[in-house]
Amino acid sequence: MTSRVRIVGIGCHPEQLTLEARSAIESCDYVIAADKGSDDPLLALRRSICSSLGVELVAVADPPRDRSSGLDEAGYDGAVLDWHDARAAAYSSVISARPGTVGFLVWGDPAFYDSTIRVVDRLGLEYDVLPGVSAISLLAARHRLVLHEVGRPVLVTTGRRLAAEVEAGHDNLVVMLDGRLQAAELAGDWDIWWGANLGSPHEELVAGRLADVLDDLTDARTRARQSDGWVMDTYLLRRAQRTTPPGLRG
Questions:
Q1: Strand, coil or helix: 32
Q2: 182 and 236 Cβ atoms separated by less than 8 Å
Q3: pTM for the full model?
Q4: What domains can be seen in the chain, in order of their start residue?
Q5: In contact, 155 and 170? CB cutoff 8 Å
C-alpha cells in the first residue's frame, strides 16, 4: 500500500479548524506528531483534535537539536538541517511500518516558520498542504490592523534576524520566533503591536510606542508563561510616525 501525506494547518485554536482541514484529517489513517516531552501542550491539543475526529495519533520522540547560543549563521543553519534530517528519519521508520494516508497537524499555517513541509519533502512521498489561520493573521485581526501601509511592503522575519533587517533599512516588520524580545534592543522610535499565545484562552496583547510599553510586554510574557507553560509571540514593528497611527492602542 502506497503512503500519502497530508500536511494540515490547524490554526491557533480548535475552533479555527477549517472545514477543509477537518475533512483532510478525517481522511487520514493516522496522524504523526512530535513528542517533545510530558509537558507539551501542543501535543495535547493535537491529541484532542484527533480524538474528536476519530483518528489515531502516533507520537514520535522528537530528536534533539543543537540550540547552542554561540552558533553563527552557518552553524545555526547546519543544526536546523541536521534536526530536519533526524526528524525525517524518525517519521520514515513509522511510515514504513504503517503505510496509508498519514497526517501532520501544523499549529497555525505550514507556510510560516514551520519545518513540516521541509521534513516531509525529505520522505520522497506524495503529499499535499492545507493552509490554516496563522499567528500573523490572528495578530492583525486582534489589533484590527492592515500589516502594510498603502503601497508599501511588510517583511516577515525572526527575532534572530531582526537587527540585521533593520540595519538593511526595513521599517515595517512582522517578527516571529523571538524568545528574547530583540525589539527592546533597537535604537530609534518604534511602534509595536504584539501578541503572545494567540488563540489560547490566555492570549496576551500589547500595543503602543515600544519604549513606553516594554514593562507591559515583560509582564504579559510572564503571565503567558505562567498560564500556558510556554510563550509563542508574534508582533508587528513599525518605525514610529510623527502622529499616532490609526488603530494604535496601549
A1: strand
A2: no
A3: 0.89
A4: 4-133 (3.40.1010.10), 136-239 (3.30.950.10)
A5: yes
